[in-house]
Design a protein that fits this description.
alpha/beta; 11 helices; 290 residues
Length: 290
């Protein structure tokens, strides 16, 4: 199964075949169930039919722009390719790709329609992911008016940034939440993380972020351990941690937190799914999310 499907009404299946051949995609004839199925299993959806049909069918399925598939409509006259969903998340790139079939791209995202960069396009170009995704609203709005600096910082290091600063880190699948007792050393923390990854069959290279509470800013052992793992460590404020759901009880409630390891992993994850609930390794607690 490819990550792209071309869905068409019966009258447009011949054109759908051309598109599928060009994209290396599969063709599916329109049925009432086809869009829910495609949302579950595909990253890119191309639809040959009226935009009204597509909008009505996908509206109940839309959840999160970071995880929803990119959806593009090709007009029935086979002239225009229009991103309907996920412009910054693959749809704009898809319509540009379709110009190879002579289709005219109709791009409506503010930054790209004006020839400006967006946070998402920079992330895609640099092979990184955006950690604090809410920041993209204000940063992309600012990019409409002016160029913004991009600061590349090597590590190990720490970055303290405001809510209107987008933080991009190397692309990966998993986020690791870490809690530790005061004064825990580098080696103990590193071994706890390595044990958790090994138990779940996860490679270090598949981890894109390590996260903890900002109450651990002065834990040099934690900073050194993540540095030794060649990782990126982010410190989360109380509000971000306590906004998470789906975690169990924690002793961190004594310091006003929902928890540390599990909510920190969830807060920085892409799909908000815990792969490993918090697990204690001596004086270290580790949780894994994706």
């Amino acid at each position: 199964m490819t990550d792209t499907v071309v869905i068409a009404l019966p009258y447009f299946l011949a054109d759908a075949g051309k598109v599928a051949s060009f994209l290396g995609a599969e063709v599916a004839e329109f049925t009432p169930e086809i869009f829910p199925e495609a949302f579950r299993s595909r990253k890119r959806i191309v639809a040959l039919m009226s935009m009204g049909i597509v909008v009505r069918k996908i509206a109940p399925l839309i959840r999160d722009k970071w995880t929803d598939p990119a959806v593009v409509v090709i007009s029935p006259d086979f002239r225009y390719a229009v991103p309907v969903l996920g412009g910054h998340h693959g749809a704009n790139d898809l319509v540009k790709e379709l110009t190879g079939l002579g289709l005219i791209p109709v791009i409506t995202t503010a930054t790209e329609s004006r020839g400006r960069d967006s946070v998402e396009s920079v992330a895609d170009r640099t092979g990184t992911d955006v950690i604090n995704r809410d920041s993209t609203r204000s940063v992309n709005a600012a990019l409409l008016e002016r160029d913004l600096p991009i600061h590349s910082i090597g590590g190990p290091s720490m970055v303290i940034a405001g809510p209107d600063v987008s933080i991009l880190v190397r692309r990966g699948t998993y986020s690791i939440g870490i809690g530790c007792r005061k004064g825990t050393g580098e080696e103990e923390i590193k071994q706890a993380v390595l044990s958790a990854l090994s138990e779940n069959g996860i490679s270090i290279s598949d981890v894109f972020i390590y996260a903890t509470t900002d109450k651990k800013l002065h834990e040099t052992g934690l900073v050194a351990a993540v540095g030794a793992l060649s990782g990126n460590l982010i410190f989360l404020d109380d509000e971000t941690i306590n906004a998470q759901t789906g975690t169990g009880p924690s002793r961190a409630s004594k310091i006003g937190l929902l928890g540390v390891a599990a909510p920190c992993a969830l807060a920085t994850s892409r799909y908000k799914e815990l792969i490993m609930e918090k697990k204690v390794y001596g004086r270290v607690t580790v949780a894994i999310a994706r």
